[in-house]
Design a protein that fits this description.
heterodimer, A: 126 residues, alpha/beta, 3 helices, 6 strands, B: 340 residues, alpha+beta, 8-stranded mixed sheet, two-stranded antiparallel ribbon, elongated
């Protein structure tokens, strides 16, 4: 399986889904004009990846800003991971936020609330 | 009723009603419809929860945008104090990155400098000197803005302003506006000197001004990381040299500027001056005032090609009257001979 790499733009984050390292990274602001177009390849890739491997997965998410339609897709991705977790796959999501950015932390808490998997809120020291 | 319920009253009612239906003892809990209804109910509750989260997170993100906008507004407000309003407006209207680029255009360039600023303020505390200098620069800036000049820079107590870019009213109008601004600045300084004198400044300072018109290169100069919107060219040098050769309280203009303003503003021809970088002597003219303003005094003022007269009856010293009469007699005799 190939890794999924998408370069950051002004409105979308850098994406690196690495099947060899079992590492999923999203880094940057997220407010695409067409959220479906941006998330479709990510969701398709993840479906294939979660169906094949049964090794521990780490997700490092650093999205300081996202729009409403992206929040729906983020929930969708986290639920996919949560379902995989329920099937005994070890998954950890690290939700990064800048030191003092309480709003980002609150958003992380909102996502965290409904998930059974390990969801860590990680403050980045500036 | 909490906030969440208030937003989703209808949804809460629907959930409550569905729970009542599903909990009804009369309902066959093993039927296909019960299973399907339970599934739909579960999905509906999930959807409502997701919607609640999205609304909440949307509000949080909106708050972030609002805060960022407020910071951006403050930044723009602070930045606007460091650049000329015309340049600031230009920057705000740019839809792309500002690049290093320039163009040639006709401008009128203004330079002013305080005569002996250091010795004028030597009996003052540094704080008072700073306050007086800022007061002076503030007043001059306000006048420059009123006349639409682009303030290029402050160099200590010196001020550099130009007219003709980014907006121009035409070469002649730009030159007239620039000189009108300079006249108003010198008049304002008379008031300021009175105020500063009352505050203890023994020798309230005087200002000299130089103005020149012509082609300049204007635009962004510097590196991609640090740009200056400024002008370069021999006219800039000329304006600066005219300023340094002016007497205190005087406004000197170049011949090009003079030719643009002479119909409306009375000027006196002065000596030529050699300017570094210009291989020929430069004719300079001393600005007096608009013709209209001169006539409110007891004076005689006339001007046309080959003839210029200005007699200020309020100002001429008593011991110079005979000399003035002598010059006038000489002129009359010479003109009479010319007529014969």
């Amino acid at each position: 399986m190939n890794s999924l790499e998408i370069a950051a733009t002004n409105t979308t984050p850098e994406v690196l889904f690495d099947p060899n390292m079992n590492l999923l990274i999203m880094n940057g602001e997220l407010y695409p004009e067409n959220a479906t177009a941006f998330f479709s390849p990510l969701i398709n890739w993840l479906e294939g990846f979660l169906g094949k491997k049964n090794e521990p997965i780490t997700c490092n998410i650093n999205i300081p800003y996202f729009n409403t339609s992206s929040s729906k897709y983020l929930m969708h991705i986290f639920e996919m991971l949560n379902r995989a977790h329920k099937k005994e796959k070890k998954i950890i999501i690290n939700w990064y936020y800048e030191e003092g950015d309480e709003m980002s932390m609150e958003c992380g808490e909102e996502f965290q609330e409904d998930l059974d998997l390990q969801f860590e809120l990680v403050e980045k020291k500036s | 009723m909490d906030e969440k319920q208030e937003i989703q009253t209808e949804e809460s009612r629907t959930i409550h009603r569905a729970e009542k239906v599903l909990g009804n003892d009369k309902l066959d809990k093993k039927s296909y419809f019960h299973d399907e209804y339970s599934y739909l109910f579960k999905q509906y509750k999930k959807l409502i929860k997701q919607m609640e989260k999205m609304v909440k997170m949307g509000d949080i993100q909106q708050q972030k945008v609002t805060k960022l906008n407020q910071r951006l507004d403050l930044l723009a407000k602070n930045l606007s104090k460091y650049v000329s309003p015309q340049i600031f407006d230009l920057m705000q209207s740019e839809k792309e990155d500002i690049k290093i680029q320039s163009h040639r255009t006709q401008l009128t360039v203004f330079f002013s400098d305080i005569v002996d600023f250091t010795s004028s303020t030597e009996n003052l505390q540094p704080e008072d000197t700073t306050r007086i200098l800022n007061e002076y620069l503030e007043e001059m800036s306000q006048i420059a803005l009123k006349f639409g000049g682009t303030i290029d820079k402050f160099i200590g107590d010196a001020v550099m302003i130009f007219f003709g870019d980014p907006q121009s009213k035409g070469m002649q109008e730009d030159a007239l506006t620039c000189v009108a601004m300079a006249i108003e600045m010198q008049k304002k300084l008379i008031d300021l000197r009175r105020i500063w004198s009352n505050r203890g400044l023994q020798n309230p300072f005087k200002v000299r001004i130089g103005i020149a018109s012509g082609y300049c290169t204007v635009g962004n100069f510097g590196s991609n990381n640090r740009l200056d919107y400024t002008i370069i060219g021999s006219i800039v040098n000329l304006a600066s040299r005219l300023e340094s050769s002016a007497k205190p309280d005087d406004i000197l203009v170049s011949h090009e500027t003079y030719s643009l303003i002479k119909d409306k503003i009375y000027c006196e021809k002065e000596d030529v001056v050699m300017v570094k970088g210009i291989p020929f002597p430069v004719q300079k003219y001393k600005v007096i005032d608009f013709y209209g303003n001169l006539k409110v005094h007891e004076e005689i003022s006339e001007y046309f090609d080959g003839f210029s007269i200005y007699v200020d009856l309020d100002y001429i010293p008593q011991n110079n009257i005979d000399q003035a009469i002598s010059y006038l007699d000489q002129s009359i005799n010479a003109l009479k001979k010319l007529k014969e």
